Amino acid sequence: MRVRSAVVRITAAVLAVGCITACADGTPTAVPGPMARATAPGGVAGGAGTSAASVRANASCAAGKCTDNSRASGSENRPGTGGGRHPCSPSVSLDRYSDALDKTTFQGTFIGNLSALARDTDGSIAAVSDRSVLIGLDGRTHRPVRAAKITDEQGAVLDAEGLAVEPGGTYLVSSETEPSVRRYDRFGTLLGRLPVPDALRVAPAGWAQSNQTFEGLALRPGGGTLTAAMEGPLTGDGKDTAGRPLLRFQTWQRYGARPGPAPYRLGKQYAYPVDAGLGVSEIAALSDGRLLVLERGFTAGVGNTVRLYLADPRRAADVGSVAKLPGGKTVRAAHKKLLADLGACPSLGAPAHQPQTNPLLDNIEGMTIPGRAPGGRLRLPLVSDDNESPKQITRLYELTVRPGGH
After folding, report:
1. Contacts from 354-361 at CB under 8 Å and sequence distance 24+?
2. Where are the beta strands (DSSP E) in 9-83?
3. CA-to-CA distance for 232 and 48, rounded, in angstroms?
4. Residue 108: which residues within 8 A CB-CB, separation 6 or more?
5. pLDDT tens digits for the chain (406 residues)?
6. Which SS3 state, helix, strand or coil, does residue 260 take?
7. Cis upstream peptide for 41 (omega within 30°)
8. Which residues contact residue 166 at a Cβ distance below 8 angstroms, ignoring those fewer than 6 apart?
């Protein structure tokens, strides 16, 4: 491996700020922040065979400052990936990844177990832990800037799996325990709770299976339509003609902006065909009503499978009154198109703490759309849930996506 002296200097600089850059454009230029872009001198992409450094920072963060406990790992540059993008498919590219949050704390709060991301109104990225913590990440550096505990009406913790931010800055959080969707203010104070159809409740109250309920949550830009995605099928629901299990996605329509009880009414419920052996771990809403859907599975000794789909529910039938899916030939499910199998993304030298067919992958659960990248592609940060396990990693990913169509 050919290492330039500039790389050595840059690696030292990166270690000093406790950040990671998955470098791909020749000799990297260090930029502060754990997911900063690496570029060649003059912005010219490096040629085939050029090597670069990638740093995994294991930092302890308090009051916005991180103590660096990082280690370096190599990242092979691949030809044909100029402009910082590493193609996973014609529609999806991986820009970089970061392990800087892995096993860290912020003001005494463990920053892990992250199960959802959402674009916040102040430019930060909101995250939620399935151990009942709302976390704010700096929009540029992705370092923690705030943390607040949240509870249910009785003061008990939530199994929080989904997160959305309303235009006014309040939070919508789904828990897969009941399941439920609750509203919280910026300080974590409970404001109200949305209605949930009885059939979607965990048995014996309904037909849902334990730990297979509201895993994904997305608010359409503008704040009018909220969608919650079931992770697994209801007991009694079947498969489509292609043998794919049918999950239920529930929507709500907002009808006001007042505080207090959540101002949402139950809306359309539709069927979504998930790949066999996978479940839905997250959704993100596009302005035209379509959704990005993250499907995820795990096989012991093999690792994770993570696929990104574009789903179009606009012509899907309302199945709220259908007792058992598929419900007949006239019941149309949401259409979906594969954008990328993330196992096909370049690994960028990422480490794995357990067997993975691609060491880049982990238990990816969170996803949001904070804006657009140059060229009009959607920026798509992802995050994995480490379950506080030494075998798993809290890993942030930055992808760019061209969903296509309207």
Report:
1. 354/303, 354/391, 354/392, 355/301, 355/302, 355/303, 356/303, 356/304, 357/302, 357/303, 358/303, 360/94, 360/97, 360/397, 361/303, 361/304, 361/305, 361/306
2. 51-56, 60-62, 65-67, 71-76
3. 44
4. none
5. 433 334 334 333 333 333 333 333 222 223 233 343 332 222 322 332 322 233 333 344 443 333 333 332 333 333 223 337 899 999 999 999 999 999 999 999 999 999 999 999 999 999 999 999 999 999 999 999 999 999 999 999 999 999 999 999 999 999 999 999 999 999 999 999 999 999 999 999 999 999 999 999 999 998 899 999 999 999 999 999 999 999 999 999 998 766 556 689 999 999 999 999 999 999 999 999 999 999 999 999 999 999 999 999 999 999 999 999 998 888 999 999 999 999 999 999 999 999 999 999 999 999 999 999 988 999 999 999 999 999 999 999 999 999 986 5
6. coil
7. no
8. 172, 183, 219, 223
| Residue whose C-alpha is closest to residue 127's, from 390, 403, 383, 361 | 383
Reduced to 3 states (helix: H, G, I; strand: E, B; else coil), residue 82 is helix
3-class DSSP assignment, residue 13? helix
Q: In what order do the strands lie in the sheet with 171-175?
A: 160-165, 171-175, 180-184, 190-193
What phi-psi label fits residue 268: left (phi over 0), alpha (psi between -120 and 50 degrees) or beta?
Answer: beta
Q: Model's pTM, two decimal places?
A: 0.81
The half-sphere exposure of 303 on its side-chain side, counting CA atoms within 13 A, is: 18
Distances in whole angstroms, Cα of residue 38 to Cα of each of 110, 121, 222: 29, 28, 34
Q: Is 398 helix (H, G, I), strand (E, B) or coil?
A: strand
- Residue 204: CB atoms within 10 A of its CB come to 6
Is residue 254 within 8 Å of 226, Cβ to Cβ? yes
Instruction: Write the CB contacts of 50 (distance below 8 Å, at least 6 apart in sequence).
Output: 2, 26, 27, 77
**CA atoms of 77 and 66, how far apart (whole Å):** 28
DSSP state of 206: S
From residue 241, give the alpha-carbon distance in Å to each of 124, 233, 267, 297, 331: 43, 16, 26, 22, 12
Tokens of 232: 């697994």
Q: Is 283 left (phi over 0), alpha (psi -120 to 50) or beta?
A: beta
